[in-house]
Automatic annotation (TrEMBL):
KW Transmembrane helix (keyword) present: no
SUPFAM superfamilies attached to this UniProt entry: CO dehydrogenase molybdoprotein N-domain-like, Molybdenum cofactor-binding domain
Organism: Teichococcus vastitatis
Residues in Aldehyde oxidase/xanthine dehydrogenase a/b hammerhead domain copies: 19-131
Alphabetically ordered keywords of this record: Molybdenum, Oxidoreductase
Top-level division of the source organism's lineage: Bacteria
Cytoplasm recorded as keyword: no
Cross-referenced Pfam families: Ald_Xan_dh_C (PF01315), MoCoBD_1 (PF02738), MoCoBD_2 (PF20256)
Protein's UniProt name: Xanthine dehydrogenase family protein molybdopterin-binding subunit
InterPro entries: Ald_Oxase/Xan_DH_a/b, Ald_Oxase/Xan_DH_a/b_sf, Ald_Oxase/xanthine_DH-like, AldOxase/xan_DH_MoCoBD1, AldOxase/xan_DH_MoCoBD2, AldOxase/xan_DH_Mopterin-bd_sf
Length: 733
């Protein structure tokens, strides 16, 4: 099959971003706006016995101080994964109970941010302290078998294919290893922030969110008002990747305060508070058993996971969905358990399960290659599959083998010597070359798209999708431009606004695969409608020429679109702000995106400092719609993978509750000096089944497998197998 590669289009927001003209929620300013800040609990668990806000209230410029005494009547919005709208079921400030360190206990609103901060520091609280538990080694009573939990089936059912236990027990070559990861926190530049504004009984929320419709319906439920009275506008998420996927705790507080004061209120969650105010990537532990014959055929695997959740919610763990699909393994068993800890509820963070599932599994595959004396690329190629091992359905498309072959060629893999510690550079640094594969589900969400063209040559498109920084506006404008013959800068994109079209949650790497085909379908409907305006005379004429010839100022069309095999009922969920995605398991096929990463590390022999000078990543994400933003996504994913492998950890001291990190000095991220060359290549072949444009999705698969490729490279450089993330200098001493 040949591919028509789409042209490289510059980001339509590039100049605004570089000039700082892009406005995020915390940049928002309204006349008379007041500033709010949170005061937070300093115990690991317990309850408030007394809270003295008198000094705070007495400070000049303070307009309002709210505690649980005033807010206990707020209604719960429910937890997103339990059918509700919220990042967790617990709404802070509605009771004196403290479930976790850093839980907000008071809201202060003042004329300036400085006064609000000073007042918050004057609040005095007495607590009754109860013991807390933060680790995965918890008492049995705190461990939940996910299979037995009330989480919706079949989404959170354990995977069982064939007879993994029996086949593994008989396998000639067995790997049995346990891998673990620290907690990670998203640290986007744009913090969680809300500006709430009331006008004639109607509430407008300006907030960077991936789920404007969910925030709208959730906040309406909390305040006990109809959703029709709430509008949520999220023109720029400012770094999403799961952190901003649902109703956050601060939103209703800003709305409540703004209503009480008759002024708009801005509430920014400070970075020092983010480690407890936002969701996070749970700590996990993965035991992988992988059995093969002497020839290197993988016969059976068992993937057991313990993942952290909060005491008040069950945040599901979905690791085997991807690990069971990476290779063609006929017998696969999985068991996922959730461990209750005294934290806020963990949540989604880029490739929320796939990153660690593939770190564990692809490390085990490398250990198997080592045990067999086989090349790790050849071992993976020999275990490729074109049929879904879990359901037996056809895969919509899978070009992982081609990713591995092209990546190996581009990287120069043939020059790798097999023995660990056998490659060095001229300065005596140890060189390690590692490979790993990744996969991520290709899901689709329902979407409504509206399109209007004007006789002056401009167009307005409204689509249900959020701009998370990935460049969705650029992808939409380019696709519409190609269809309509209107320049991208003449197309206004109205997205992330509940007043334009219903805004389904934008997560799970389904943004482009959902919104671009919807926009293109709207454009096709528009071309048909234009042709009907001027029967027999529309060909070769631009939309504006047709409108002028027909004496029309503008023309509107609207379409709605859902995943293959999805019932119409999903549009009801869409309209009420509830998630309704489908994938990877469609009625007639299973769909995943794939990637292969090739990584070079250099380890300084004395200090054991690890550098990553070179990465080659080859992705199969179906059709590449926007080459520039897609390559950018992959580079960002690789950087995130380097962070996950070598830097990021939210530190826990079991004596205290919560996380010790409080800023970007303590939460260590890779900086420019840590990043070398990242070469990105795409298979760029349309998927024939998942949607008319052949798009599978890219945002999350980009980082999947990076950490395993790094750990495998570290092993190749040093002979030391490291199974806990992050890997740091001291682990190589
Ligand atoms: Mo993503 S972790 O599905 O926003």
């Amino acid at each position: 099959m040949t591919t028509n590669t789409f042209p490289d289009v510059a980001r339509i927001d590039a100049h605004d971003k570089v000039r700082g003209a892009t406005r995020y929620a915390s940049d928002d300013s309204r006349p008379g706006m007041l500033h709010a800040t949170l005061a937070c609990a300093t115990i690991g668990r317990g309850s408030i016995q007394s809270i003295d806000t008198s000094a705070a209230r007495a400070l000049r410029g303070v307009r309002l101080v709210l505690t649980h005494a005033e807010l206990s009547r707020l209604q719960p919005a429910g937890f997103l994964l339990a059918g509700g709208y919220g990042v967790q079921s617990l709404q802070p400030l509605t009771s004196p109970n403290i479930a976790y360190f850093g839980q907000p206990i008071a809201l202060v609103v003042a004329e300036t941010l400085e006064v609000a901060l000073q007042a918050a520091a004057l609040i005095r609280t007495a607590y009754a302290v109860e013991p807390h538990q933060m680790g995965l080694d918890a008492p049995e009573a705190d461990i939940v078998a996910q299979q037995e939990s009330p989480l919706p089936k079949p989404m959170f059912e354990d995977v069982h294919v064939g007879d993994a236990d029996a086949v593994f027990a008989q396998a000639a070559v067995q790997i049995d290893a346990t891998y673990a990861s620290a907690v990670q926190h998203h640290n986007p530049m744009e913090l969680l922030a809300t500006v709430a504004e009331w006008s004639e009984g109607r509430l407008t929320i300006h907030e960077g969110t991936q789920n404007a419709e969910g925030v709208r319906h959730g906040v309406a439920r909390q305040l006990g008002i109809p959703a029709e009275q709430v509008r949520v506008i999220s023109p720029q998420v400012g770094g999403g990747f799961g952190q901003k996927n649902s109703l956050q705790g601060q939103t209703v507080l800003a709305a409540f305060a703004a209503r009480a004061l008759g002024h708009s209120v801005k509430l920014v969650v400070r970075r020092s508070q983010l480690f407890h105010a936002s969701s996070f990537r749970a700590a996990t532990r993965h035991r992988i058993r992988l059995g093969a014959d002497h020839g290197g055929t993988m016969l059976a695997a068992i993937h057991e996971t313990d993942a952290q959740t909060s005491r008040h919610d069950l945040f599901p763990s979905v690791n085997a969905e991807v690990s069971a699909r990476l290779h063609g393994i006929a017998n696969f068993g999985a068991r996922e358990r959730l461990v209750r800890t005294d934290t806020q509820t963990p949540g989604y963070m880029r490739a929320p399960f796939e990153h660690m599932a593939c770190f564990a599994f692809e490390s085990a595959v490398d250990e198997l290659a080592q045990a067999l004396g086989q090349d790790p690329v050849a071992l993976r190629l020999a275990n490729d599959t074109q049929r879904d091992p879990v359901t037996g359905k056809p895969l919509s498309s899978r070009h992982l083998a081609e990713c591995l072959r092209r990546g190996a060629a581009r990287f120069g893999w043939a020059r790798r010597s097999m023995a660990p510690g056998s490659m060095q550079d001229a300065e005596g640094q140890l060189i390690g070359w590692g490979v790993a594969a990744g996969a991520y589900k290709a899901a689709t969400a329902p979407a409504v798209a509206r399109l209007r063209v004007y006789d002056d040559g401009t167009a307005l498109a409204s689509v249900g999708v959020h701009e998370m920084g990935q460049g969705i506006r650029t992808a939409l404008a380019a696709a519409l431009s190609r269809k309509l013959g209107i320049e991208p800068d003449q197309i206004t994109l109205d997205i992330g606004d509940t007043n334009s079209t219903p805004q389904h949650i934008t997560v799970g790497s389904w943004g482009t695969a959902t919104a671009v085909p919807a926009a293109v379908e709207a454009a096709d409907a528009m071309l048909s409608a234009l042709a009907e305006l001027l029967p027999g005379d529309a060909a070769g004429r631009s939309p504006a020429e047709i409108l002028r010839a027909a004496g029309r100022r503008s023309l509107d069309v609207a379409i709605r679109r859902k995943a293959p095999g999805q019932p119409d009922a999903v549009f009801t969920r869409l309209a009420t702000g509830l998630p309704a995605p489908l994938g990877p398991n469609y009625p007639d096929f299973v769909s995943f995106s794939y990637i292969a990463h090739f990584v070079e590390v250099r380890v300084e022999p004395t200090t054991r400092r690890i550098r990553v000078p070179r990465v080659v990543s080859v992705a199969d994400c179906g059709r590449v719609i926007s080459p520039r933003t897609a390559a950018s996504q992959v580079r960002g994913g690789v950087v995130w993978g380097i962070g996950a492998a070598l830097r990021e950890a939210s530190e826990v001291d079991p004596r205290y509750g919560g996380f010790l990190n409080a800023d970007l000095a303590d939460y260590v991220l890779p900086v420019n000096a840590d990043i070398g060359d990242i070469e990105v290549e795409f298979i760029d072949r349309a998927d024939p089944l998942v949607n008319a444009m052949g798009i599978k999705g890219l945002g999350e698969v980009a980082m999947v497998g990076v950490a395993a490729a790094i750990a495998n490279a570290v092993h190749h450089a040093t002979g030391i197998r490291l199974r806990d993330l992050p890997i740091r200098i001291e682990h190589l001493m």
